[in-house]
């Protein structure tokens, strides 16, 4: 009953990493799968396992955010279904995550704890444990060197060694390494669009996923044209959805080995005697016929395509405009004519 009590205490402490580590140990002892092989080549390891079948399904809605699921079958192999993504790392994480659900059903002490909770609570705990299981298998502690601290260079280095997604690497590294300084870890694309963000404390906030950070886009371009990495101050600050931007920040940014994404560690520029500095974000409408200047706050819609706010006056954002032509004379309409500010006269 010692194992049962250990699991109970870890749940009380929300120690999902501890639960995952113990399940990995128990699964290795069970001997039905090679845990190392599961981390190095998840697809092959699962395909060769007699307890589960792996299926890929493409018949799902394009907007579906569910990457896969596990279906238990009594008396015959259970099924892991994966919805393929454009990222091998994402698919690898999905496979090992779903195998983590399989593992949770096959260790009686843990299963007794997990199914003792009300349905909603139990489902949440199981998902957290499956996430922790996947991260621990794909990114073992041996590939992380804690003495280096949490840096963008270390994040990019670990990502190049493992078969996990960038978000999984960032999350796992934050678990295993000391930060050294207060800050926030961000994964972004070349446009500065946030893919993942998590703060080490409350000194630097974690920006929302999907929001474009112009400073990160600028630094990405500079790094890509140089050595692939740089450390520099943020000029306009770290943008929040509320319309405010946190300033007095410095980012260490490293473009990963694929060239399409970057890891950034953002920290306060001032080490001692600092105070959090926030400024209101003003935006000038990109429509020359409008020119409205407004505060970007929670009432302003952010356009998904370009990541910039839509003007409340004319509904323009920063997306490229397609030329519009007069149906009578077939001349291209000016911006002012398209907006209705100026009447078009056929020639």
Low-confidence stretches: none
Kindly report the spatial arrangement of strands forming the biggest sheet.
5-4-10-9-6
Shape: globular
**In CATH terms, what is the architecture of the largest domain?**
2-Layer Sandwich
Cα end-to-end separation: 90 Å
Instruction: Count structural domains.
Output: 3
CATH C-level of the largest domain: Alpha Beta
The oligomeric state of the chains shown is single chain
Largest sheet, in brief, is: 5 strands, antiparallel
DSSP helix fraction: 25-40%
The number of helical runs is 11
Instruction: State the order of secondary-structure elements, H for helix, E for strand.
Output: HHHHEEEHHHHHEEHEEEEEEEEH
Query: Mean pLDDT, nearest integer?
Result: 85
**Percent strand:** 15-25%
- Indicate the radius of gyration in whole angstroms: 25 Å
According to CATH, the fold-level topology of the largest domain is Beta-Lactamase
- Based on DSSP secondary structure assignment, what is the total number of beta strands? 13
How does the helix and strand content classify structurally?
alpha+beta
Compact summary:
The chain has helices spanning 2-12, 16-30, 35-40, 42-47, 88-105, 108-114, 119-138, 152-161, 166-176, 214-224, 335-339; strands spanning 52-56, 68-71, 78-82, 184-189, 194-199, 229-233, 238-239, 244-247, 249-255, 261-268, 277-280, 282-284, 293-295.
């Amino acid at each position: 009953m010692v194992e049962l009590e250990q699991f109970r205490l870890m749940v009380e402490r929300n120690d999902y990493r501890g639960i995952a580590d113990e399940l990995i140990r128990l699964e290795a002892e069970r001997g039905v799968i090679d845990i190392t092989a599961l981390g190095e080549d998840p697809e092959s390891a699962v395909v060769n396992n007699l307890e589960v079948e792996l299926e890929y399904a493409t018949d799902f809605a394009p907007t579906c955010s569910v990457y896969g699921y596990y279906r238990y079958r009594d008396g015959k192999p259970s099924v892991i279904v994966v919805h393929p993504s454009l990222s091998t790392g994402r698919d690898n994480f999905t496979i090992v995550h779903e195998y983590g659900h399989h593992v949770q059903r096959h260790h009686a002490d843990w299963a007794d704890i997990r199914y003792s909770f009300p349905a909603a609570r139990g489902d949440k705990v199981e998902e957290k444990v499956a996430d922790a299981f996947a991260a621990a298998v794909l990114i073992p502690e041996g590939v992380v060197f804690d003495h280096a601290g949490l840096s963008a260079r270390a994040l990019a280095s670990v990502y190049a060694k493992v078969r996990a997604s960038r978000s999984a690497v960032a999350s796992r590294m934050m678990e295993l390494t000391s930060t050294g300084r207060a800050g926030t870890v961000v994964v972004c694309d070349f446009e500065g669009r946030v893919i993942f963000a998590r703060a080490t404390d409350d000194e630097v906030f974690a920006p929302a996923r999907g929001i474009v950070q112009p400073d990160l886009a600028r630094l990405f371009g500079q790094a890509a044209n140089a050595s692939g990495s740089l450390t520099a101050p943020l000029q306009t600050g770290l943008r929040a959805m509320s319309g405010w931007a946190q300033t007095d920040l410095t980012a260490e940014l490293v473009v990963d080995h694929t060239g399409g994404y970057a890891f950034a560690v953002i920290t306060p520029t001032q080490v001692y005697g600092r105070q959090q500095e926030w400024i209101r974000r003003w935006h000038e409408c990109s429509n020359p016929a409008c020119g409205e200047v407004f505060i970007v706050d929670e009432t302003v819609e952010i356009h998904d395509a370009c990541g910039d706010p839509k003007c409340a006056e004319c509904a323009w954002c920063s997306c490229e405009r397609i030329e519009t032509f007069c149906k009578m004379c077939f001349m291209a309409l000016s911006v002012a004519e398209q907006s209705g500010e100026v009447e078009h006269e056929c020639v």
